[in-house]
Each structure stands twice: as C-alpha cells, then as structure tokens.
Amino acid sequence: MSVPPEIVPIRTFAAVTTCHAAGYAEHGRRMVETFREHWPAEVPLLLYAEGFVPDPAPGLQVHDLLADCPALVAFKARHANNPLAHGKTRRFRPKLALKAKPPWIKIKGRNWGAGYRWNAVRFAHKVYAILHAARQVDADVLIWIDADTAFFADVDLARLERYMPPDRMVGFLERPRNTHTECGFVSYNLRHPGIQRFLDEFEAMYTNDELFDEYEFHDSFLFDVVRRRAEARGDLGHDIAEGIGHRASHVLINSSLGEFMDHMKGNRKEAGTSRADDLVVKRDEAYWQRMKKPDQP
Q1: pLDDT average, residue stretch 122-140
Q2: d(CA 182, CA 121)
Q3: Residue 229 CA neighbour count, 13 Å, CB half
Q4: Are 216 and 117 within 8 A, CB to CB?
Q5: How far is CA 206 from CA 75, 192, 210, in A?
C-alpha cells in the first residue's frame, strides 16, 4: 500500500499597520487598497487609525489606536512636555553614559538627541499597534507593514511562509552596515515559545521608560536591542533580506520583497515611489523598469 505524501499545514497570517488622518490621505489609503488587491483574501489587515475613520474595505479590520492602546495614551501624556522624547534635545552625551558604545557612531555623542532617531513619541504609535494586534489576533504569524508602502504584484501564502520559518521567532530586514534594522516589514511568529517574553520586553521599553537608557529611542533601534537579548537566549530571528542589507541602504526594495512592493520611506513619499538609484540589484518587474537612474537616457 502506498504511503500518502506528508501534508504540511499552512499557517494563518494577519497584517497590521497604523497611521493618522494626514498619513492616510497621503499614502495610507493607497497601502490599504493595493494590499487588498494583491494579498490573499484570507489575510486580514488590521489598521490602527488615529483620529479618523478609514474607508471600509473587504478584510480590513479597523481599530481606534488611542482607544485600544491606553498605555500609548499614558506614554504620550507622560512625555508631552519632554523634549528628550520628541527628538528635540541637542547635546553632548558622554560615551560613558551608554550601556554599550555602538561601533558605527562617528559623532561620538555630539548633537545627540536631535532628530527622528530620538523621537520616541512618534514611533511609539507603531509599537503599541503591534503589541495590541499580537495579543488579540487569531493568527499564527503577524506581519507589520509600514503604511507608506504599496503593492504592485500578487503575494501568495507560500511566500509568506518563507518570510517566517516556523522555528524562528521574528523575520526582519537586517542592515549590518547601518545603525538599525529596517522595520518597514517585520514578521512575528506568534506560536514561538519566546515571543511573549520578546513582546513583554519590547513593551517595557515604553511603559517603564527603559528606552531612555539606550543610545537611540526609535522603534527599529529598540527592536534590535530586544531582539539581540532574545538571540542570546537562543530565540533566533530570520533575515528576510538574506544578506542584501550588507550593501543596500534601502534594503526592503532590494530584498525579495521588492518583487511585489515598494516602500516610500522618508522624502520618497512626495514622489510616491522609491528612486531608481535606491536599487543595487537588477529588477525585472515592470514597476521598476519604468524608473531610470539619473545618468540613464
């Protein structure tokens, strides 16, 4: 009698993002619309909206960010008048004040505290949306996606499986040459035995104001701090970028994610696309072929 082939169960997935009203008008609506056009119908998108009610869409689960995340409201209130939490503190921070001196820091503490890297309040919205979604969603894997992204090709469940190996805790876009991981797309394995401790430690950065002990205060830097603690315990992650971050600053579009999505981070939002010179790999997709580098005819 023949033995039937082994059946490999397909896990369930959910995605999460957040934005405020202006962000939804600028890029969030496009993200939602292209997500629903190109992602599997069985993958819900949880949108944590701040101060607005988005257009209804199939598979879109809308949450009121501030109503669902009272700890975020408390964090913002606690630091409403704290320039240190808004990236508005420019000063010299001695190296001895750091828990560990990052080897890439060239400013040696000068002008520390000014800019997005220290804007804790801005990026706290993202972290609390992830935390709330991870604790209430009925899925095996939760995928965070920045709202300033757009999709131009179909995504299937088999591809999503590759981005979150069952034995790994998180899937992320590593950038070893830069100061922090690219967190525009992150997978969380909600069935991994170490994920709850990871999420608890991530949350403690904000609820206990532990983030102010770190060199930078934005979510990607703090994600790396917590992730490296977990890796030291044996809870390993998976580099979705497969090493491309060693030579690409805009790692998302140069990874396999660039086969179906774009990420308009920073001032790329104004143009509505990434730039051709962001690419360090050859892209054959029509979306990218329409772009030309400045020196091309």
Answers
A1: 97
A2: 19
A3: 13
A4: yes
A5: 7, 23, 6
- b/e per residue, 250-272, with b = 16+ CB within 10 A? bbbbbbebbbbbbbbbeebeeee
Model confidence at 112, in pLDDT bands (50, 70, 90)?
Answer: confident
The single residue listed with the structure tokens 């033995």 is 3
In angstroms, rounded to a whole number, what is the distance separating the alpha carbons of residues 22 and 182? 23
Q: Which phi and psi (to 5°) does residue 219 adopt?
A: -65, -35
Q: How far apart are CA 189 and CA 201, in angstroms?
A: 16
Q: How far is the C-alpha of 164 from the C-alpha of 237, rounded, in Å?
A: 9
Phi-psi region of 158 (alpha: psi -120 to 50; beta: other; left: phi over 0): alpha
Confidence (pLDDT) at 114 = 79
Residue 227 pLDDT exceeds 90? yes
List the domains of the chain with CATH numbers: 13-73+120-289 (3.90.550.10)
Strand runs (DSSP E) across the chain, as ranges? Answer: 13-20, 45-50, 60-64, 88-91, 112-114, 141-145, 149-151, 170-173, 182-189, 237-239, 261-263
Cβ atoms within 10 Å, residue 4: 6
E strands present in 74-231:
88-91, 112-114, 141-145, 149-151, 170-173, 182-189
The overall longest dimension of the chain from CA atoms, in Å, is: 76
Q: How many CB atoms lie within 10 A of CB 57?
A: 16
Handedness of CA 170, 282, 157, 129 (dihedral sign): positive
Nearest Cα to Cα of residue 164 among 178, 180, 144? 144
| E strand intervals along 36-100 | 45-50, 60-64, 88-91
Q: pTM for the full model?
A: 0.90
Half-sphere exposure of 71 (CA within 13 A, CB side): 15
